[in-house]
Design a protein that fits this description.
Bound molecules: adenosine monophosphate
Order of helices and strands: EHEHEHHHEHEHHHEEE
Number of strands: 8
Shape: globular
Number of helices: 9
Family: Belongs to the pantothenate synthetase family.
Pfam families: Pantoate_ligase
Strand order of the largest sheet: 3-2-1-4-5
Pathway: Cofactor biosynthesis; (R)-pantothenate biosynthesis; (R)-pantothenate from (R)-pantoate and beta-alanine: step 1/1
Largest sheet: 5 strands, parallel
InterPro entries: Pantoate_ligase, Pantoate_ligase_C, Rossmann-like_a/b/a_fold
Enzyme class: ligase
Radius of gyration: 20 Å
Length: about 300
């Protein structure tokens, strides 16, 4: 009997379901965990307001389970914080008190620069979940590429007896990567939010036609974000949705160190993060996101530039 583990924070969407489908195809049993882990949220981050949709999540899991041809969703593990942190209460300060898994320098790069405790929290909670469930395989989404690299490193470095499986990113029709946080985006911010995907695709296209230098590849992405940003700047506050680019990165797939040139064999990870700023003026009649489009929303996405090494 084999078990596939799918760790989530709930507020399930098609991205989560695709992980579960793949896990069911490769294992007899799927364990889904739903736990909003406090230690991966910084003190000023959205822990308390993180979307919680328990009834709908259960409904989605039941529906999915009925249509699985192999395997089944055998358990949903939604532990309390006392179960996950039995000795000391969860601490998301630095250095903080408690038992932590630190995967450095990976955890300090990219997302880690603006979210310094994030990957310590992720690695710690995943280690706990892996130890509790002891799965043959664990499933993570390509959307969170840095997370996939860190989990693979943790499994190797700690000799964990599980196989890490990565599942492609599920997208909305226009290409926006699905995310539980997309509910915060009303119509206006939602439309502009596609800029990151467009920028990454432009950079991928530059690579496809033969560019291999960092400057040339990233320039294609920056051109898209700069253009879209200027377009918004020229609009009136009633109509625009402004954003900031946090980073656009071209990095080594294993170390996530920035590269000057894409190695033909290794390939590279092209990734980015933008912050959709709160709307300056909301109009009556337009469709608002949860929180009335007053919440800044960070969007991340990535594209793999494949090398010949596979
Ligand atoms: P979260 O609940 O956001 O922590 O995500 C739980 C798992 O689902 C993580 O492994 C994510 O990478 C994965 N995931 C989230 N969004 C997507 C998506 N759009 N496509 C594929 N996997 C996703």
């Amino acid at each position: 009997m084999t078990v596939g583990l799918v760790p989530t924070m709930g507020a399930l969407h098609e991205g989560h379901l695709s992980l579960i489908r793949q896990a069911a195809g490769e294992n007899d049993k799927v364990f889904v965990t739903i736990y909003v882990n406090p230690t991966q949220f910084g003190v000023n981050e959205d822990l308390d307001s993180y979307p919680k949709t328990w009834d709908r999540d259960m409904q989605l899991l039941h529906q999915l389970d009925e249509h699985l041809t192999r395997g089944d969703v055998s358990a949903v593990f939604a532990p309390t914080t006392k179960t996950m942190y039995p000795m000391l209460p969860p601490d998301s300060t630095l250095p903080g008190k408690g038992s932590f898994v630190n995967i450095t320098p990976l955890a300090n790069l990219l997302e880690g620069k603006s979210r310094p405790v994030f990957f310590r929290g992720v690695a710690t909670v995943c280690m706990k979940l892996f130890n509790i469930v002891q799965p043959e395989r664990v499933y993570f989404g390509q959307k969170d590429v840095q997370q996939t690299v860190i989990i693979k490193r943790m499994v190797k470095d700690f000799h964990l007896d599980t196989q890490v499986r990565i599942v492609p990113t599920e997208r909305e029709q226009d290409g926006l990567a699905m995310s539980s946080r997309n509910v915060y985006l009303g119509e206006r911010r939602r439309k502009v939010g596609i800029v990151l995907r467009k920028a990454l695709l432009a950079a991928q296209e530059a690579f496809r036609i033969g560019k291999t230098s960092r400057e040339e590849i990233l320039a294609a992405a920056w051109e898209v974000t700069n253009r879209m940003s200027m377009e918004q700047d020229t609009m009136v506050p009633e109509q625009r949705a402004r954003f900031e680019v946090d980073y656009l990165s071209l990095a080594d797939p294993e170390t996530l160190e920035e590269v000057a040139l894409v190695d033909a064999q290794q390939g590279a990870v092209l990734s980015g993060a933008i912050k959709m700023l709160p709307l300056e003026v909301v109009r009556d009649g337009e469709a608002h996101g949860v929180g009335g489009d007053k919440v800044p929303v960070r969007l991340i996405d990535n594209v793999i530039l494949s090398g010949t090494g596979g």
